[in-house]
Automatic annotation (TrEMBL):
Name assigned to this protein: Membrane-associated protein
Pfam families xref list: VTT_dom (PF09335)
Protein localization: Cell membrane
Source species taxonomy: Bacteria, Pseudomonadati, Bacteroidota, Cytophagia, Cytophagales
Every VTT domain range: 42-169
Membrane-crossing segments per the record: 21-44, 64-86, 151-172, 178-202
PANTHER family the record matches: INNER MEMBRANE PROTEIN DEDA-RELATED, TRANSMEMBRANE PROTEIN
Family in the record: Belongs to the DedA family.
Record organism: Flexibacter flexilis DSM 6793
Length: 218
């Protein structure tokens, strides 16, 4: 039991993922978070940023080209996994009851992005926690063409991986003392994540309340 708790704790700790798991575990986390609906809780943005930053400071002993390549491949393949899942069984998620690792409000939030931005949601979702996990699934459920999805998938992964990993790497090279402020960086990313999730939840709840009287009248 103690070993299981340690593993779970490490999965929530980006520094531990990078230090103990190395490049392969980082890539596996990215794949899971972008491709498996029950892994939406895994670290995404700040894992990429910290990996790049620690690579730049030399703390993470890996070539930057290999780091970008592995994470880029994992992000691409993860979205393809989500797309395939959406094509095959994604519709059943709407009937799935809420649980610890799944909430139907996540689908509703992602659906709002699709209604507003269409296929570009795949690109935008890369930078939005939770939404990036469910966006490829909804793309598959909506039967977006494979070619269109692939285009958005590659564009989104390029900006997401390039921006966060290379941005972190640049800061690590130019300002190696930034390593002393890792925890503040994590707090910053977690604050953005929390704000995004809470904002989406409140928006969905408000929309539901507005639609409730109309549904009752019918």
């Amino acid at each position: 039991m103690k070993e299981i708790l340690e593993i779970v704790d490490m999965l929530f700790n980006s520094e531990a993922i990078i230090a103990k798991g190395g490049l392969m575990l980082v890539a596996m986390i990215v794949f899971a978070e972008t491709g498996l609906f029950f892994c939406f809780w895994l670290p995404g943005d700040y894992l990429l940023f910290l990996a790049g930053m620690l690579c730049g400071t030399g703390t993470f002993d890996v070539n930057i080209a290999a780091l970008v390549g592995y994470i880029f491949a994992a992000a691409i393949l993860g979205n393809y996994m989500g797309y395939w899942f959406g094509l095959k069984v994604g519709g059943k998620l709407y009937q799935r009851p809420d649980s610890l690792f799944f909430k139907r409000k996540y689908l509703a939030s992602t659906r709002e992005f699709f209604d507003k931005y269409g296929g570009k949601t795949i690109v935008i979702a890369r930078f939005l926690p939770i939404v990036r996990t469910f966006a490829p699934i909804l793309a598959g459920t909506s039967h977006m063409t494979f070619m269109a999805f692939s285009l958005y998938n590659f564009i989104g992964a390029t900006f997401w991986v390039g921006g966060l990993v290379l941005g972190g790497y640049y800061l690590g090279v130019q300002y190696p003392q930034i390593i002393n402020y890792v925890h503040w960086i994590i707090v910053f990313f977690l604050s953005i994540t929390t704000f995004t999730v809470v904002k989406s939840y409140l928006k969905i709840r408000e929309s539901h309340k507005k639609n409730q009287p109309a549904n009752v009248s019918k």
